[in-house]
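Give me the fold.
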Amino acid sequence: MEYRYKPEGVCSMEIIIRVEEDIITYVEFVGGCPGNTMGISNLVKGMKVEDAIHKLKGIDCRGKGTSCPDQLAKALENIK
């Protein structure tokens, strides 16, 4: 199933996520730092949703109180 999430407090404008049977099969960040967001997307592919949330939640970017990885964790929490 495909989900779309509008992140807050980061440069990315949207996160597109596909999950099948609790496994992340695809992640795309629209906007943001391309190298970093592509890296995050590739790292979480094949991961269980709960494992990705555990690894990414709370990561901060430059004192913003959030980051693209943290926003991905929040998006995944909404999927559960």
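The beta strands are 2-5, 14-20, 23-30.
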